[in-house]
Amino acid sequence: MPLEQKDLGRRPDWLRVKLPSGGNFQQVQQMMRGHLLHTVCEEARCPNIGECWNNRTATFMILGRVCTRHCGFCAVQSGRPNELDLQEPARVAEVVADIGLNHVVVTSVARDDLEDGGASIFAATIRAIRDARPECSIEVLIPDFQGNWDALQLVMDARPDILNHNIETVTRLSDRVRSKAKYPRSLELLRRAKLMEPRSYSKSGIMLGLGEERDEIVQALHDLRDAGVDIVTIGQYLRPTMHHLPLQRYYTPDEFADLKAEALAMGFAHCESGPLVRSSYHAHAQVPAGRVPSMPVATTV
């Protein structure tokens, strides 16, 4: 039987955020609109949009705003995507240069309708940003490309500073939470990415509150570390609408702090862990923290 949302009462104080506003927020919003660009900040209803946009940081969402998958946790629109926009990489690079960003995060919807899953557009975006603003470090948050390792190679050949792919949840819940994605395939992607380009830092994240047990969280962290992942994020799942997966519990700030300590003890170079943490939260601060050798992984691809 499907899980029902538990009666958790009012949202805890540590999950309350201010409504987005301010001059920088409006300027970033207008710039995105003017260049016909999308951000995951808006499309996924991120609670940190006010803080991040007022700090003039945003996560670009390329390959359109319609996803070919329908994950149970995600607020991004799903359906049949529009045609590919080959000018999008240049427009992203222009905004990065105009804002003067020192670190940029680029993610996308899943595009299972494309032969390479959009990997060539990711690679073109990385190169365009490098040309427009060489001093800017680049993080890409990619889908699994349905296990197309040639597509992954296209992205890694462009050498992002950080390659991010989220496992999202523990292995037991993965099939329910992630449409078409497979937990072992995600780990294999992270492992192969590290072997294809050892100079890029690898990153992944999980969200809590979907019914996982603590020992399952710890095992997921071990799985990521065994795949050579350098940076991990841990945040609280918040149900976007009544049509999404029900929330089972809130984790306290102390519990997040405890998991961060455990992750760092495993050897992760950086762990961002907290109720409002999302994959790109404080991403700019994770680049210097990740500059340590990664754990070796198996050498066969």
What does this structure look like?
With 301 residues, this protein is of the alpha/beta class. The protein has one domain (18-286): TIM Barrel, CATH 3.20.20.70. It is built from eleven helices and eight strands. The protein has an eight-stranded mixed beta sheet with strand order 1-2-3-4-5-6-7-8. Strand 6, helix 9 and strand 7 (231-236) form a beta-alpha-beta unit. Helix 4 packs parallel to helix 5 and helix 6 (149-157) packs parallel to helix 8 (183-196). The N and C termini lie far apart (39 Å). Residues 289-301 have low confidence and may be disordered.
Proportion of beta-strand residues: 5-15%
Structural class from helices and strands? alpha/beta
Our measurement of the CA-to-CA distance between the termini, rounded to an integer number of angstroms, reads 39 Å
Overall pLDDT: 84
- Percentage of helical residues? 25-40%
Order of strands, widest sheet: 1-2-3-4-5-6-7-8
Order of helices and strands: HEHHEHEHEHEHHEHEHEH
Low-confidence stretches are 289-301
- What is the subunit arrangement here? single chain
* CATH H-level superfamily: Aldolase class I
Could you name the CATH class? Alpha Beta
Highlighted features:
11 helices; single chain; 13% strand; TIM Barrel; alpha/beta; 8-stranded mixed sheet
What is the structure about, briefly put?
By secondary structure, the protein is α/β, with parallel strands linked by helices. The chain has helices at 23-34, 40-43, 49-54, 88-99, 119-132, 149-157, 174-177, 183-196, 214-226, 253-266, 286-289, and strands spanning 38-39, 59-62, 103-108, 137-141, 162-164, 201-208, 231-236, 270-273. The radius of gyration is 18 Å and the shape is globular.
